[in-house]
Amino acid sequence: MLSIFSAAEVPGTDRMVLLFGQLMVVGAGLLIGLALIYFKKVGWLWKNWLTSVDHKKIGIMYLVVAGVMLLRGLADTVLLRFQQATSSGASHGIVSSDHFQQIFTAHGTMMIFFVAMGLVFGIINLIVPLQIGSRDVAFPLLNNLSFWMYAAGAILINLSLVFGGEFAATGWLAYPPLSELQFSPGVGVDYWIWSIQIAGIGTLLSGINFITTILTKRAPGMTMMKMPVFVWSVLAAMSLVAAAFPILTVTLVLLTLDRTIGTHFFTTTGGGNAMMYVNLIWAWGHPEVYILILPAFGIYSEIVATFSRKRLFGYASMVYAIIAITALSFVVWLHHFFTMGAGADVNAFFGIMTMVIAIPTGVKVFNWLFTMYRGRINFASPMIWFIGFVITFSIGGAAGVMLGVPPIDFQLHNTLFLVAHFHTMIVGGALFGYFAGIVYWFPKVFGFKLDEKLGKLAVYLWIAGFICAFTPLYILGLMGATRRLDHYDASLGWQGLFIVAGVGVLIIFAGVGVQLLMFYKSIRNRKKNIDKTGDPWNGRTLEWATSSPAPVYNFAAIPTVTDRDEFYRVKQLKLKLPKRKFSAIEMPNNSPFGIFMAGWALMFAFSVIWHFPPTIILAVLGIVITFLVRSFNDNTTYLISAAEVEAIENKRVGALL
Amino acid sequence: MSKKGKLTPSKIFLIAVTLSVVFCFILFLLVRHHTIAVLSPQGQIAQSEMNLMKFAALLSLLVIVPVFGLLFYIIFTFRESKKSKKYSPEYSNVLLELIWWAIPLGIITVLSIVTWNQTHKLDPFRSLSSNQTPVRIQAVAMNWKWLFIYPDYGIATVNQLTIPVNHPIDFSITSEGAMNSLWIPQLGGQIYAMAGMNTQLHLIASKPGIYRGGSANISGKGFAGMHFDVSAVDTQSFSQWANSMTSQPQALTKYTLRQLSQPSENVQPFAFGTVENGLFDTIVNQYLPFQQDPDNGKTNTMNGMNMSSMGEM
Amino acid sequence: MTKVSPMHKEIDKETATSLLGFWVYMMTDCILFASLFAVFIVLKNNTAGGSNGAELFSLPFVLMQTLILLTSSFTSGLAMLAAQRSRIKDTFIWLGATGILGASFLALEINEFTKLDHSGSSWRTSGFLSSYFTLVGTHGLHITVGLLWLAGILFYIYKKGLNETSVKRLTMFSIFWHFLDVVWIFIFSVVYLLGVN
Questions:
Q1: How far apart are CA B243 and CA B266, in angstroms?
Q2: H helix or E strand, kind and range, residue C135
Q3: Would you call B221 helix, strand, or coil by DSSP?
Q4: Is the CB of residue C165 less than 8 Å away from at least one CB of chain A?
Q5: From A244, which residue of chain C is nearest by alpha-carbon distance?
C-alpha cells in the first residue's frame, strides 16, 4: 500500500523533509525580522516588550513563544503519524530511521520544555500577582531573565535544524549509553543538552521568584488559607521546580562532561553507571510532570467555581490534596523504570506509592464535580475544556494506575499504551487546562473576549481528535507495539490503527486551525467585545477587581482581604467602595539585562556544542561584565505620580496594545 | 447566547455517543483478525500478568463509572438553562468529602496488597517451579540484533528462538552497548538488557506456536529491526532442532563475536553450530567498573555484576 | 518604603524579600550538591583499575584546607558585624582577610588537582575520579564565584559606601560563604574521611 513511499532507505524524501524544515525555520525568522524592520517596529518592540519587567508583558511573551513552539511540535507530530501510518511492510515511509528518531526526540523535548512549560509560566506570570493583590512578582528583573533563558533555549533547539541539521536521536530523555559519544557522535545530543539546560536555569530562577512572591507579596489579610486554589497550586509547582530542577542541571552537566571531557559518569567503560542516569533524570522527571499538571488543576478550580456560580467545594481538602501530591511526587520516580531490574521489594514499594498518589488526585475530581452540584452551570468554552479533561483524564489516570503495578508494567512499559497514557495526562490534563485558562483570562489581559462559537468548536475538535488519535494507541500497545518504531511488519495488522491515529491528529490540527481563526476573528471584532467592567465572567477572585487590561501597577491601592473569593464577597454585599485617595507608585524600570545574559548563555552553549573556545571565553566574560554593570546601576525604578495614577484609574476602559 | 434550535447539551451528547459507537466499531473491525498479544497469553507468566491487568482495570471502573455518571447527571441537572431550584452557592458537606477520601483509599489499599504479592510472585528474577528441566538461554542485545546462546547445547542463534513447550526458559540477559529490553509479550513481561549487567527473565510457554519478540527500548537507528520469532515446539522437536543446529557451519568464537558486533540492521535469522565456552560472561565482564578502561592497557578479571544479587539488597 | 540605616535591627521589606529569595536559591544549591554527593557515593568504588581514595588523599593536607576555609567563614562573620556597625574600615579588613583565605584555599585545591592529574589520576581515568573531581570541583567553582562576587562587593562599597544595598548584598554573600563551609564539612567527611578508610 502507498508504494510511492517504498524506497528502502528513502534518502530522497528524507532530505526533502529536512530541507523543508530548515526553510521553514529560516523563512519564519527572516519574515519576522524583515517585517519588524519594514514597519519600523524594532524600537517599539525593544522598549515596550523585550526589555519589559512587567509580569503581564512577560506572560504574554511566554505564551507567544509557547504558541509558536506548539505549531512547531505539531508539525513534527504530523510527520511522526504519517511515517507510522505508511511505513509498513515493503514501504519505509518518508524519513529514514535515524531522522525519525530525531523527530520524535525533538517532538517530546519541544512539547514538554517549550510548549507546556511556556504555557505554565505564561499563565502564572499573567495571573498570580493579580490574584494575590500585588503589584508585580518579587524580582521583576529576574523574571525577565527567566523568560529570555527560556527563549534562548527555544532558539537553540530551532538552530539545531539549521546549523548541523541534526538533533538527538535518543528519545526525549537521552538515556546513556545511547547518548554518549560512542553511540551519538554528532552534535545532536549536545543541542538537546544545552537547549534544555539553558531553559532549565530560567525555570529554576522563576521557581525561586514565584515562591518568594507568593510568600511575601500577598495583599494584607490574605492568609495562606485565603489564597485562591490556583495560587496554592502554583506554590506547590514552584516548590517542585526548586527541588527538582537542580537535579536536571547536575545530570545534564555530567552528561556534558562525559561527551566533552571524557569523564566516566555514564559510559559503559571506565566505571560509568548508566542506571544512575536513569535514576537521576527521573528523580527530576517525575516532579516535572507534576509541575506541568498542578497549575492546570488550579485553573480548573477557578473555572469550575466561577462558571458554576458557587464557592469551590472542599477548599481545605483541595489544599491538602495539592500538598499531598507535591510530597508524594518525590517518592514515585522509579515507576518509570520498573523493568530495569531493581528487585521485587523496591518495585513493589514504588508501585504502591504511585497508586497512593491517585487518591488525592481523585479527591480533587470529586470536589470539582460537587462544586458543580447545586450550582448554576454556564457552559462557556472553559467549562467544556474542563469536561473534556474529566473524560480523558479519568481514563488516562486509570491506565496510569495499571501501569503502576509492576507486573502489569512489564507488559506495557515502553509500548504505545504508555505513550497514550502520558499524552492523555499531559494533553487531556495539562494542555486542556492551559487552553481553558487562556480563554478564561484573555479578557483580563487584552480587554476583550474571545469568540465563543469558534472557541467551543475548537474544544470539540480537540476532544474528538484526541480520542481518535490516542485510543488506537492504547490498543496498539496491547497488541505488542513498542514506542518509537519507524517501521513494522505488515502482517501484524497495526497499520489500520496507525491510520486512524493519523486521522485523529488531523482533527486536532483542524482544532488548532479553528483556535487560530478564533484569535484572528476576535482581534478583528475586538471593539464589539470590549470588556468594560474588568469582570466579564462574574468572577470571584481579586484579578477581576482591576480594569481589563490591568494598569501597569495592577492595583492603585493594594486591597485588604478578609475572605476567600474576596471580590465575590464584595460584589454580593454590594459594598460601597470608599472614596479613594491616590498616592505615588514606584515601579521598576525596563532593562536589557535579561536579553544580554541570555544572549551570552546562547553564545556559550553554541560554542561548547561546536567546540570553539574563543567564544566560550567571550561569553563567560560577557556574563561577568553584564552582571557587574547591572550591580552598579542604582537607578532602577521610576515613579508614577499620584495625579497620573488618578488619571489612569478614571479611564478604566479596556485598551489594546 | 441563545441555544434554541442550536446545539443543546442533549444534542451534543447524542452526537458524541453516536460517533463513539461508530468509532468503536471501526476499531473492532480493524483488530478482529489480529493478535492482541498482551491479551492472548500463551504462558503462565503472561497469563498471570493479564489476570492482574483485568483485576486492576475492574477496580479502576469502580472509580470511573461513578465519575462519569456523576459528571453527566450534574451537567444535565444543574445547567443554567434548567433553572434548577436547588441552587446552594455555599454548599459544603464534610461527610461526602470523607467518603471520597475513604473509598479511593480502600480501593488503593486492596490494590496495594495485591501489588505487593504479585510483584514478588512475578519478579522476573524468580525461578519458575516446574518438574521439567529448564532451558538456559543467554541473550545479548547487539547493534541491532539479538544473539541467543544456548550454553547447555553448545549452539547459538541470531534473531530467532526455538524453545520447548512447558519447560521453564531461564534467560540471562546483557547488552553489548546501548540499553535494550527483551520482550516476548505472549509469554510474559520484559526486562532491560544493559552493558555490564546480567538481568534475568523466567518465562514458560504452554502451547506450541510462533510468538513474536523484540526490543522494547530504543538503542539506535536499527532498533525497530530487532524483532525475532519464538518457535515453541514439543520437547522432542526441540531436541531434534538443537541437534540439527550443531551441524551449522558457523562457529561463535571471540573473533566471530567481534565481527557479529559490527553494526548491522534487519539481520535475517541464522545459527552458530558451535559456541566457545564462557562467551556470555566475557561479554558481561568487559564493562566491569573495577576493571581498567581498555584504553589504559591493564586488565582484570572478576565476576560480572549480577543483577539478581542487587535485587535482594 | 522607608530606608533604614544599618544600625537599626529591622530590615525593610525589600531587603527581607531579597533575603528570602536568596535563601530559597540556597536550598536549590543544596539539592545540587546533594545530587553530586549521591553520584559520588554511587561511583565511589568504580576505580576502573586506577587509584582509589586511600591511595590518593592526604588527610593532613585536607585538614589544612578545612582550617583555612573555616577561618575565612569566621572572618566573613566579623566583616558582617563591622558592616552592621557601619565600620567601613573594619569591613574592608575582614572582607580582605576572607578573600585572601578563600584564595589560599582555592590555590591549594588547584594545586592538588594538578598534582593528581599529572600523576595519572585525572577525571577521565575512572567513574570514581570523575565524580570526585566534579563534586569537589563544583565546590571550588562556587568558591571562585564567591571570590569574584566578594571583589565586586568590595568595589561597590569602595564606590558607594555602606548603604542599604551594600549591607543587603554582604548579607547574601555571608549566607553563601557559610553554606560553602557546610558543604565542605560534608565533603571532608564523605569524600576524604570515608574515602581513606
A1: 27
A2: helix C127-160
A3: coil
A4: yes
A5: C31
In the complex, which subunits touch C with 3 or more CB pairs below 8 angstroms? A, B
Task: pLDDT tens for chain B, 313 residues: list them.
Answer: 444 556 777 888 899 999 999 999 999 999 999 999 999 999 999 999 999 999 999 999 999 999 999 999 999 899 888 777 778 888 888 899 899 899 999 999 999 999 999 999 999 999 999 999 999 999 999 999 999 999 999 999 999 999 999 999 999 999 999 999 999 999 999 999 999 999 999 999 999 999 999 999 999 999 999 999 999 999 999 999 999 999 999 999 999 999 999 999 999 999 999 999 999 999 999 988 776 544 443 333 232 344 443 433 3
How long, in residues, is chain A? 657
CB contact under 8 Å between A410 and B124, yes or no, is yes
Residues 6+ apart with CB under 8 A from C148: A624
Nearest by CB: A402 against B23, B56, B224: B56
Calpha distance B171→B180 (Å, rounded):
14
Q: Is the peptide bond before A282 cis (omega within 30 degrees of 0)?
A: no
Distances (CA, A) of B3 to A35, A317, A514, B7, B82: 43, 36, 21, 6, 12
All partners of chain B with 3 or more CB pairs under 8 angstroms: A, C
Contact between C45 and B289 using a beta-carbon 8 Å cutoff: yes
DSSP letter string, A64-94: HHHHHHHHHHHHHHHHHHHHHHH-BTT---S
DSSP track, A537-582: T---SGGGGS-SSPPTTS-SSPPP--STTHHHHHHHTTPPPPPP--
- Catalogue the long-range contacts made by A451-457 (C-beta closer than 8 Å, 24 or more residues apart): A451/A518, A451/A521, A451/A522, A451/A525, A451/A529, A452/A380, A452/A381, A452/B1, A454/A514, A454/A515, A454/A517, A454/A518, A454/A521, A455/A381, A455/A515, A455/A518, A456/A381, A456/A384, A457/A514
Closest-approach residue (CA) in chain B for A360: B101
Cell of C67: 582550617
Check residue B82 and report its DSSP letter. G
C-alpha cell at A453: 462559537
B71 touches chain A (CB under 8 A): yes
Question: Crossing angle of helices C164-187/C59-84, nearest 10°?
Answer: 160
Other beta carbons within 10 Å of C2: 6
Residues in chain B with CB shorter than 8 Å from the CB of A411 are 38, 46, 49-50, 53, 185, 188-190
The percent helix, strand, coil of chain A (3-state, each to 5) is: 70, 0, 30
Contact list, B293 vs chain C (CB under 8 Å) = 48-49, 125-126
Residue count (chain C) = 197
Which of B72, B77, B105 has its CA nearest to residue A390?
Answer: B72
**Exposed / middle / buried, residue C174 (Cβ in 10 Å: 0-12, 13-18, 19+):** middle
pTM, 2 dp? 0.94
Beta strand B228-233 with B160-164 is: parallel
